[in-house]
């Protein structure tokens, strides 16, 4: 029996993780559940799964479930991230908030199933050095990084020549570029292959998300930027590939579903049924791969530039992206202004650092403040 602490239990990844636990109640138990502010759903989950501990991080609300200890606020959040009886902590919150969750869990010596890409984008060196210090595992949950991990036989340090990251191209991949300034949030959220949260779905449309995944790969697999290639793959059947010294390329394939990488992070190296349909290759026909159109995806180019520069740039990029996407989802800015706001935020150096969580939090706060100022100027 593995005990799981689910950080972000009411989000898309958290709900799918609970589906895995529901599927194998003899193998997994949710001992702690943590949500940001969805009190009603958290109460439903606590009633069903009976965790020892449930937390609402930012909402000043109360839930009452028999046999479940409940807390509100940051102290409760930190306790859930380092919950004593947890064997694995699934970090499934979005944005910069995931970094604190990952660091809390690793500091307690917990294995981390990492679905929060921003943790590695803004603080990859901190996360992986702490994991090594504590002898804890970082288990990739992103479908692309799980695919790479599988192709490397679950050894993040195995040798390879090149990583080939695949990207769907997002919801707007076929919209004429001249029409992109006029697309709505609803259109950008209509992903053709995946069902995900709003922020990551917009990041898929802009391919900022894929730039983040390049940075994740650099940290997780010790890859230089020159050894990572991104290809647009519309079918989302090949989740990523790894090329080796002899020219062989291994690919991990499957239907688009996050349940497989979530479950595999809990069960590896064992594989159990996910109750997913098999890929019907005869019906599917050809698989297609294309170069990334840099003119369509300026956020991707900005992310690669930040990956090359390093330092505080990835942290600033993430903060600006969060603010810009929020503004777009609220209808305050145009879709194409997401990239403009990120670029403007990156254009001037900021004080702050990267050598500690506190330094990164300061950088993040400064970048958010600048991005918010730019958004206000755009709206005005």
Could you characterize what this model shows?
It is a single chain. The chain has 15 helices and eleven strands. It has a seven-stranded parallel sheet with strand order 4-3-2-1-5-6-7, with helices on both faces. A four-stranded mixed sheet has the order 9-8-10-11, covered by helices on one side. The longest helix has 23 residues.
Sequence of secondary-structure elements: EHEHEEHEHEHEHEHHHEEEHHHHHH
Q: Which structural class do the helices and strands define?
A: alpha/beta
Morphology call: globular
Rg, nearest Å: 20 Å
Quaternary organisation: single chain
Low-confidence stretches: none
The amount of beta strand, in percent, is 5-15%
- Give the strand order, joined by hyphens, for the main sheet: 4-3-2-1-5-6-7
Percent of residues in helical segments? Answer: 40-55%
Total of helices = 15
N→C terminal distance: 56 Å
Number of beta strands: 11
Report on the biggest sheet: 7 strands, parallel
- What is the mean pLDDT? 95
